Amino acid sequence: MEIPVNALLLDRETKASERPGDHKDELRLWLRLLTCSTLIESEIRTRLREEFKTTLPRFDLMAQLEKSTTGMTVGEVSQRLMVSNGNVTAVVAGLLADGLVDKRPAAQDRRVQVLTLTAQGRRAFKAMAERHEDWIAELFAGLEPAETAQLFHLLGRTKASLHNAIGRRQSGTPDSAGDQT
Amino acid sequence: MEIPVNALLLDRETKASERPGDHKDELRLWLRLLTCSTLIESEIRTRLREEFKTTLPRFDLMAQLEKSTTGMTVGEVSQRLMVSNGNVTAVVAGLLADGLVDKRPAAQDRRVQVLTLTAQGRRAFKAMAERHEDWIAELFAGLEPAETAQLFHLLGRTKASLHNAIGRRQSGTPDSAGDQT
DNA sequence: GAAAATTATTTCAGACCTAAAATAACTCGG
DNA sequence: CCGAGTTATTTTAGGTCTGAAATAATTTTC
């Protein structure tokens, strides 16, 4: 894993600009990443609204619950989706009102609220998930398989860099093979 | 640019799964892209709040204005940031109240509102932009230069794929060399 | 075993964001 | 010139999201 300091310096020197505090390349990279993310997100948002009269946060929350057979707590969902607890509470309120989700205190620990999809919720999600998967494939259709694989790999490296820079506070979530995050 | 159909079919067949409508790879790619985007965004959001008592939308809006010497209209900013007009109106209202932005109807067309940074706004932005650039570099520090270049390239390809799938409605914004989007 | 600390969730205030409707200003054909 | 259509922005209603404070339940510590 060790890279000689000389190699790093050489790499630095091969960069276009030589100004000392120049990080324009990383900035451009971030802006492009953000653009891609925003484009996909808003397209999915539009299609969910038009085709299923629902929203992305609701869909994402249901997707988490669908993956768990035993249900999830508010805190678990909040961590998975990387949103605040209060936000989960609010989105769940909407899903409860629509009868798509069930919420009940855990037997052992009455602080904990266990969330599960209702039968209706599972049906509704299944229909949406199928379409959603197609939409995503359609959006990435311009990339060849080797490119998507390479991109996936580099984003994994990016994720590791981010966790390293931010601090491994929530280090209980390694990027395991089956992990879709 | 033409790729023989046979080559594509072969590529398809090399994939792990052979189920007909399987697009799990693209889904995983999207989720990982979203994770990276969310991690960066919320870290920058936190730092902007803690260090400058401001928000990301305000910073992004100011960044757009700073790049333009003659000012920008509400519509232009809205297109650049990929947010609704109404949202720009609201964020600008905050910046106006803080004396960071100036808004005035255009001389020729009084429907149009021209936005510019005030002197105070430029000062404030300059201080933030410097730190912001460092933060981004710090977050990507785990990638080697060759990797950031490769990632930048692949995200460019992704962007093209997205525009192609979504429809080139706003085709007036090509991904030119100096374009930071 | 009860006070203190911790943990899980909700509430709150405030900012963001959207889509759609409303408003205001411009252009253009007749 | 004048009304129909277009364009730029604002307003509105409603959902999303946050951080911090409040509430409630559990665990720890003495």
Report on the architecture of this protein:
The structure is a homodimer of 181-residue chains. By secondary structure, chain A is mostly helical. Chain A has a single domain, classed as Arc Repressor Mutant, subunit A, CATH 1.10.10.10. In chain A, 64% of the residues lie in helices and 7% in strands. Chain A is built from 7 helices and 3 strands; from the N terminus they run αααβααββαα. Chain A has a 3-stranded antiparallel beta sheet. In chain A, a hairpin with a 7-residue loop joins strand 2 and strand 3. The longest helix of chain A is centred in the first third of the chain and has 29 residues. Chain A is globular and about 60 Å long. The two termini of chain A are 25 Å apart. The C terminus of chain A is likely disordered. Chains A and B meet through helix 1, helix 2, helix 6 and helix 7 of A and helix 1, helix 2, helix 6 and helix 7 of B. Chain A binds a DNA duplex (30 and 30 nucleotides) through helix 2, helix 4 and helix 5.
What's the quick description here?
Chain A contains 7 helices and 3 strands.
Which helices and strands, and how do they pair?
Two copies of one chain form a homodimer.
Chain A: H1 5-14, H2 24-52, H3 56-67, E1 72-73, H4 74-81, H5 85-97, E2 101-105, E3 113-117, H6 119-139, H7 145-166
Antiparallel strand pairs in A: 1-3, 2-3
Helix pairs in contact in A: 2-6, 3-6, 4-5
Chain A binds a DNA duplex (30 and 30 nucleotides) through helix 2, helix 4 and helix 5.
List keywords for this structure.
homodimer; Arc Repressor Mutant, subunit A; 3-stranded antiparallel beta sheet; 7 helices; 3 strands; disordered C terminus; DNA-binding
